[in-house]
Design goal:
Number of helices: 3
Shape: elongated
Strand content: 15-25%
Radius of gyration: 26 Å
Order of helices and strands: HEHEEHEE
Helix content: 25-40%
Number of domains: 2
CATH architecture of the largest domain: 2-Layer Sandwich
Length: 150
């Protein structure tokens, strides 16, 4: 009877070793493949510097009251490479034109957002404050259908 138990234990041990050997082989092959063929970072084509090299943090606010609009813009802006850190509703829903508010005084970042969405540069406002942790705020107005959004 003790021989029977040790044979079963041996079989289980050999099966476990075999399984772990196969798993280790798969991981080694995956590592070699990853080194030889690195993952492509983005499949979007860069269009007139729309995709950016440095990360711009945005706040997206719905200023016209269309349900789900801030979420829709958030998704699109992230596909352009922007880091949308917050989204929600603006103080009111009376915005007729979409604006960008530069929060850190860096107009280059606000201009990149404007170019990505097709917003004229004269609709970029500066509201610099050390209390803001983000680069810009996008306030979506009722002209949102004229913007570059998929």
């Amino acid at each position: 009877m003790s021989d029977n138990i040790s044979e079963q234990e041996g079989f289980v041990l050999n099966a476990a070793i075999g399984f772990l050997s196969v798993l280790l082989s798969i991981l080694i092959i995956a590592l070699i493949f990853r080194v030889l063929h690195p993952r492509i970072q983005s499949d979007r084509v860069e269009q007139d510097s729309v995709l950016i090299s440095n990360i711009i943090q945005l706040e997206v606010l719905n200023g016209c009251g269309v349900p789900g609009l801030a979420t829709r813009f958030t998704s699109n802006l992230r596909s352009y490479g922007f880091d949308v850190v917050e989204s929600g509703n603006f103080d009111n829903f009376d915005m007729t034109e979409t604006i960008i508010i530069s929060r850190n005084g860096n107009l280059a970042n606000a201009n990149r957002v404007a170019r990505a969405l097709g917003i004229p540069e004269d609709r970029i406002l500066i509201e610099k404050s050390n209390d803001f942790y983000l680069d810009a705020t996008l306030v979506i107005g009722s002209d949102y259908q004229s913007l570059n959004i998929d």
